[in-house]
């Protein structure tokens, strides 16, 4: 594992950071205020072709991998964890998982549409009662006599459900062998898919998460990912990559809060000297720097092992737990170090503090992931 970026990677990182500073930063306040993803921001993402490099070379991209995706979402996560999440979702679901295991005839076109944000690809994961407990799925799929599948049930929090062109979901396979779960790709809009009202949230405004109900939704056999009845491993691999991306987003969030707080500590004076000169703050700034750097190393290790093994739950879970908890710690410290300046709105640190709280919950809480890690020790 290389711990230094190549010249090309540094160039991409600079490009993505500039985009985040110039475009995302001014749009983030609007998104937080309206709880909507602005159309002009989507247009900017398309115009800058931010996700195009993640397509394979034969589809017009540069074949960038998961490691490069973590660099991208870390930079976007500095200004907008919401947009960083969208980028991760589009690449992991719409490009990587799609090209690896989707069976839809036009899956190459779908990859291009995902890269251009012409087709939003969302994950319908959380069960209304069971959460992310895959052993307690109530959403079912049944193979009909005509070879198609019928999906019934619902999911509680689906990001951009009202915008999505495709939903990916894991279902309990009725009458199938294997592990008894089937991963399906559902095209929207559909009269058999009912989308509820967008939830109001503490942070991450712009995710536009809403409940979804499948009312005997008919899905063609070609929209089964992989093989019916054996969906768990494919789903697990996809979610592991998303967890690694969430860890990278949290790292970017923590880095930005650290930078903002450090700038404040150098310029803000109390008792005739900068507050950053007081040892009580210096030690906490050192702890914050340690946490952010360690989070980044966790992300890179998870990427390395996922590439070597194809999928690596334990390292992905560790990266997600450590980075999200570190981000929340740093965000809390940043609020304390900056005082009222960070607490009042509009304040980037105040917004990132609220966003950081969500990251500890999404795609498996810290507690659930710790349980799963312990089972593998």
Automatic annotation (TrEMBL):
Signal peptide: none
Cofactor(s) the protein needs: FAD
Domain Acyl-CoA dehydrogenase/oxidase C-terminal: 237-377
Ranges where the Acyl-CoA dehydrogenase/oxidase N-terminal domain occurs: 7-91
Any Pfam family: Acyl-CoA_dh_M
GO MF term set: acyl-CoA dehydrogenase activity; flavin adenine dinucleotide binding
Top-rank taxon, per record: Bacteria
Oxidoreductase listed as a keyword: yes
Every Acyl-CoA oxidase/dehydrogenase middle domain range: 123-216
Keyword Flavoprotein belongs to the record: yes
Keywords: FAD, Flavoprotein, Oxidoreductase
Similarity comment text for this entry: Belongs to the acyl-CoA dehydrogenase family.
Name the UniProt record assigns to this protein: Butyryl-CoA dehydrogenase
Organism: Candidatus Ozemobacter sibiricus
